[in-house]
Amino acid sequence: MKSVFITRDLAPDSSFKTRLSLAGYEVSGQSLLEFSAVPFLDFPATDWIFFYSKNGVKFFFENLIARQIPFPKIAYAAMGEATAQQITSYDISPSFIGSGDPTKTAAHFLKLAQHQKVLFPQALHSRQSIQQLLKNQFNSYDLVVYENKVKAKLKLPTADYLVFTSPLNAVAYHKHKTILAAQKIIAIGQSTNKALLKLKLNANIQIAQQASESALAEAVLAF
User: Fold this and answer.
1) What 8-state DSSP symbol labels residue 82?
2) Does pTM top 0.70 for this prediction?
3) Ordered DSSP codes for 1-51
4) What is the C-alpha separation between 213 and 4, in angstroms, rounded?
5) Residue 95: CB partners within 8 Å, gap ≥ 6?
6) Domains identified in the chain and CATH numbers
7) Is the separation of the CB atoms in 35 and 147 below 8 Å?
8) Which runs of E-coded beta strand occur in the chain?
9) CB of 180 within 8 A of CB of 156?
10) Cα torsion at 131, 136, 140, 144 (round to 10°)?
11) What are phi and psi of 19, to 5 degrees?
């Protein structure tokens, strides 16, 4: 039986696990990172709030809830489908949902937000991919809402397929365990792929078509 490891804690109803298990794969998942809130008190008035990740959504809104502050009634944007679903869990409908690919998402978002004010809740060491691609195209504001660190103790399996869901997860796995040339690697997007290329691996790397569990599963099956 072929085995797959993904750097994400998988929910019982995970589409990634379900799809691959039905196809006969042994699937395991574990986030290699731990997350903690970075408190914030205020942020500038904007036209848009753009979220890079589900964690950005979670820590932004949980801060507002804890302080009993109403959610801003403005337009919300998500980097990809999973982030959009996290936004909807707070009873908010995103006005824009990207594909997860920074270049394509930036181009499409610019059509809506050019010359407007955009707030980016993000991690402490965010790569700021959309902001970097769209410099001077709109008024951009950073808001650090959480910090991510590599877990101190990790027990990592050896698998036929390795699926990396962020650049830091890729670096963390490589730091704790050798990635073999025979292993097949899936990157969730271009940023994660670039991080893997910097590690100068001999393994074969493919990039998922979208930043979703379904797309990641299909990338494994298509390898």
Assistant:
1) H
2) yes
3) --EEEESSPPPTT-HHHHHHHHTT-EEEE---EEEEE---------SEEEE
4) 13
5) 48, 75, 76, 77, 112
6) 3-32+151-222 (3.40.50.10090), 37-149 (3.40.50.10090)
7) yes
8) 3-6, 26-29, 33-37, 48-51, 75-78, 96-97, 117-123, 139-150, 161-164, 184-187, 204-207
9) no
10) 40
11) -60, -45
What phi and psi values does residue 84 have, to the nearest 5 degrees?
-60, -40
Write out the two tokens for 174.
Answer: 């490589």
3-state secondary structure of 175: helix
Q: What is the CA radius of gyration of the chain?
A: 18
Q: How far is CA 70 from the centre of its chain?
A: 26
Q: What are the 10-residue block averages of pLDDT along the chain, 223 residues in total?
A: 95 94 96 95 95 96 96 96 94 95 93 95 92 91 95 90 95 92 93 91 89 92 93
Which residues 6+ apart lie within 8 Å of 18 measured at CB?
none
